[in-house]
Amino acid sequence: MKKTILSIVTALAAVASTLVVLTAPANAHGYISSPPSRQANCAQGRVANCGPIVYEPQSVEGAKGQKNCHGGLGQFAQLSDESKPWPATSVGQNVTFNWVLTARHSTSTWEYFIGNTRVAVFNDGGRQPGATVSHNVNLGGFSGRQRLLAVWNIADTPMAFYSCVDLQIGGGGGNPNPTPTPTPTVTPRPPSPTPTVTPPPAGGTWRAGVSYATGSTVTYGGATYRCLQAHTSLTGWEPPNVPALWSRV
Fold it and tell me: Do the Cβ atoms of 155 and 126 come closer than 8 Å?
């Protein structure tokens, strides 16, 4: 009897262990930082009332094959709320999308969609990406305001990361064929002195939850670092840990 009970307990433990492995999230995180994705705009305070995504813009991870901005995660449903005033970035027909990866994972493909049309796919063949990834995507055939969905498909799990970017496509933004206006006659003035360019001020000691501009400097662990890409800092993104965002001076 004791042997039978022990066998049953052992079997249940094995099943539980298998379920944990199958349901554990992928050890990878990332999102599009520029043009700013919806989670980037939330994290940087450009859109209000976004919920918990402001603290973890890199965590929109859901099952593969979805066509929404929140990866099917209820806590991030705000990202799919079309009533929010999402700012649209003015772009031309060719756009470079830049991902920041806070943890890297072997990758199958990167996909880009406008509506139900897949406008681009990049196959990594299971390779591990770097700390940043850039893709140049041709958006020919689309114009005006569009919502682009980018999907990072992980190679060895059934999961993917989702990032939506709002764009104003056409001639770099605005009206691509503006009506010309007459050039006014202007009395020439003497040239102005060349302005002195002041570098971005030092940011003091690095802290989480701060929006850092490109070129700003901070101190951390007794060393000085320069910001390589504008972002809002998060715990785990300390300068020595993310060389894609910080360079030691």
Answer: yes
Q: Would you say 131 and 243 are in contact if contact means Cβ atoms under 8 Å apart?
A: yes
Model confidence pTM above 0.85: no
Q: pLDDT digits over 174-230, tens only? A: 333 333 444 444 455 555 555 454 445 556 898 887 878 888 899 998 889 888 877
Residue 210, C-beta contacts closer than 8 angstroms, at least 6 positions apart: 203, 232, 233
The answer to whether 133 touches 146, Cβ cutoff 8 Å, is no
Find tokens 């989670």 and name the residue: 39
pLDDT, tens digit (0-9, with 9 covering 90-100), for 63-74? 999 999 999 999
- Rounded distance between C-alpha atoms, residue 72 and residue 146, angstroms: 21
165 Cβ partners below 8 Å, 6+ apart?
Answer: 32, 35, 36, 37, 38, 89, 97, 147, 148, 150
- For the chain, where are the alpha helices, taking DSSP H only? 2-23, 38-43
**CB neighbours of 196 closer than 8 A, spacing ≥ 6?**
none
